[in-house]
Amino acid sequence: MNRVDVVNGVAAVLAVVGSMAAVGAGGAPVPPVKIVEASSTRYRRIASASTVADPLLRDLCPADRVVAVSALSREGPQGHRYAGLTTIPSLEALEQIIGLSPEVLVVSNVGDARRVARLREAGIEVIDLGPPTGLASLKDDILQVGELCGRPDAAKELASTLETRLERVASGVSGKRAVYVTVYGGRYYGGTKGSSYHDVLRYAGLKDAAAERFSGFPQYTVEQLLALDPDLLVTKTGMGASLCADEALSRLKACPDGVIEVEGAYLDDPGLGMLTAAERIAAASGR
Question: Residue 286: its pLDDT value, please?
Answer without folding.
Answer: 76
